[in-house]
Amino acid sequence: MGRPDLNRRQLLAAAGGLAVAGSFGFAALGTGADALASSADTRVRYWNLFSGGDGANMIAMLDAFRKANPGIDVKDSTLQWGNPFYTKLAMAAAGNRAPDLGVMHMGRVTGFSPGRLLDPWDVELLAEYGIREQDFNPKLWQRGVIDGKLYALPLDIHVQLCFYRKDVLGKAGLLGDDGRMIPVTSTDEWFDVLKKAKAVQKKGLQTIGLWTNDQNFQWWFFVAFYTQLGGQWFNDANTEVLFDTDKATQVLEFLRRHVTDGYVIPGAPTGEQFVNGAPFTWEGNWSVPVFSGAELDYGATPLPPVFGKQATHAESHAFVLPHQADRGGATNEGAHRLAAYVVKHALQWAAGGHIPAYTPTLSTDAYKKLTPQNEYVSAMDHQATEPKVWFAGSTGVLAQDLGPVVVSSTMGSAKPAAVANRMKSRLTQLLASKNPMDGRTAAQGGAVA
Q: Is the separation of the CB atoms in 228 and 305 below 8 Å?
């Protein structure tokens, strides 16, 4: 497998921009500080982007691995989340200074030029460490497969959720006999729920937090509801745009109605309002530790299937093998062993709200006792994901381009129908554009092979 035919400018432009990369520096590239810190025989250098509660949970899992595998020294480095991380990882792989193991969002894998900047996993070696394809959601596993090879080993899925205050919904008669929010299967039912909740909520608070002016959240919500409508993006060969502007307009009008009907206060702090008594907020599952820490009486369910089909936006953290010209031997085996261990021992990871990708974990008594995680675990089976193209994925080109136009519709500065047409036009441009990582279009990238 040849070395990447990439120059520095291409890499920086692809991963987030010259200014971002220049400001981030090169502190995490291989240095003398990587020397073995113990008497271990093997060192595994591991880069991740986990901070806050996720960072603490990952450190606990790494410490457990070290205790169980004293012969392997793990040198872990946490880098800045988002494009700075991907810039660093791309340049390290292109310069043959990559770590032995890394983490990526699954949606970014296709654009990371698998085979050039990423090495494939040895599935037989993973099997020796207890990782088998049949222990994962089939669609999730296949998202990491490019040209018939596994390039991303799923650790979790993280999803957008409908958080609700049980104390408020109880007063409004919106809880079922099981103590959970009543089912919603249409837009009319959903707005009826909001109307009843608003009638009993505290004054001065919004009824629901929607992150109306945040391009990432608005994009994630759009992906979820567009998927509920059965909306498509491109044909299987990635040569034709199938984006349905009528369905997109329906979604945009739905999001906008939350503002026009007075259920949202644009710009209001969503999490804080929820803690203070707002009935609903739509947030990522990473908010679970925050709300649980506040000792709220709350629940969390996947985004309501208002268009009839269950689907909630989902991304996935996945382990990857950044390209190394000399990958192999004990260090490579150590990277496989470390990734397999963390994936199989992800109960600690579930405490942060994420749904473990390793499905045997989901059937354990310990996981079933986690609340509200046990309420939204079904999201594993109805994930709404971005298309499998080089410009998709967390903080990717697709979200950066289309997120702001969704915001413009939700906030009322542009008409939903006009925004839908603008989105289709931009999708057409992106489909014909070339990945700066390898100079290939989506149709040439092998993502559907």
A: yes
